[in-house]
């Protein structure tokens, strides 16, 4: 599956959490929603690095519409995971990126299975 497909899966997971959280502030589901939104942002940044490497923070912010401070944070996370590397002209992917993308499909499938399992829990009032 392409990274675009994975981003769409991420959107689906976020929507499921948002529906579960509709109309009420809930610390538990809100935290999950924030983490999924951050994952989506990291994947969007990685996608743009893959398509435009080398690419700098300001260009990434401009192309994605994501504020530069959030782009900087996502780049730092991706670099810590070994998926990108900093270079003088901007961020570039590493040899680990391709393996990560293969494993990502499996990870997203696991998240979807977990969400389906949550729906199976019947809580009565």
Automatic annotation (TrEMBL):
Pfam families referenced in this protein's UniProt entry, alphabetically: HTH_24
Gene3D superfamilies: Winged helix-like DNA-binding domain superfamily/Winged helix DNA-binding domain
Name of the protein this chain belongs to: Winged helix-turn-helix transcriptional regulator
């Amino acid at each position: 599956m392409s990274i675009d497909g994975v981003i769409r899966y991420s959107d689906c997971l976020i929507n499921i959490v948002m529906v579960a959280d509709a109309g009420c502030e809930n610390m538990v589901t809100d935290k999950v929603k924030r983490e999924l939104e951050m994952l989506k942002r990291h994947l969007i940044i990685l996608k743009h690095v893959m398509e435009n490497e080398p690419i700098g923070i300001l260009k990434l912010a401009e192309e994605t519409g994501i504020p530069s401070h959030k782009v900087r944070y996502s780049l730092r996370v991706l670099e810590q995971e070994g998926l990108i590397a900093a270079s003088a002209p901007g961020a570039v992917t590493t040899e680990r990126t391709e393996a990560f993308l293969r494993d990502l499909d499996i990870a997203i499938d696991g998240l979807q299975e977990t969400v389906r399992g949550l729906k199976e829990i019947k809580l009565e009032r």
